[in-house]
Amino acid sequence: MEYTVKRSDRKTLALHVTDEAALVARAPAGMPPHVIEDFIRQKNDWITAHIAAKAAQAAAKSSFCLDYGSSVLFRGKECAIAPSADGRAGFDGERFFLPPGLDSDTIIRNIRHIYIQLAKILLSEKTAKAAEKMSLSPPPVRISSAKTCWGSCGGKGISYSWRLVLADDGAINYVVVHELAHIIHRNHGSGFWREVGAVVPDYKLQTQKLRKLQKRLEAERWD
Description:
2 domains, three-stranded mixed beta sheet
C-alpha cells in the first residue's frame, strides 16, 4: 500500500486519508520505518474503508453541477434555481433566481455569492437576538469561507462560515449560541455547556444535524 510519511516532534503515530484518497502517516521524528509499516498493516481494514469513502466523495464532488431547475439548501429547505425575466440575481424567499443562459460553474459562483450576502444579514440578526437573550452586547459579525468550522469567536468578534445558512434554523441558532457562549467561557468546560444548554437544550441533536450537512457539503463543489 502506498503512503507518505510526515515526521514531526509528535509523540504518537496517526494515519490520515486526504481528500484525494491518499494515505499519510504522521509519525514521531525518530520512529523506525518498520514500526510504521506494521501499524499500517494492522489498520488495513480501516484504511481500505476510508480510502473508498474519500474516493467516492471526490467522484461526487467532481460531478457536482447546478442548472436551472436544480435545488439548493437555504435554512434547511430545498430552494429551486430559476432564470430571472429581468436578468437580475438574488433570492426571493422561495427560490434563487439568476440571469438566463449561465453555465453550471457560473451558476455555482453566483449562488455562492448570494449565500454570502444572505449569511451576513441572517447571521447578524440571529447573533443580535441571541446576544440579547444571553444578556450580552452583540459582537461584530464577519462571514468567512471556512469549510470545516461553522463559527469561531475571537477578540474582534464572531466569524461564521457562509455555509452555515444551508443548515436549518435550529442548527444555525445552536452555532450562534455556541460562539456567543465563548465570550463568557473561553473553553469547552462544564460551565460552557451549561450556558449553551440553557438556551439550546437540544444542542446535541443540532450537532448531529450539522455533521450530516457537513457530509453533504463535502460532496459539493462550492469553490
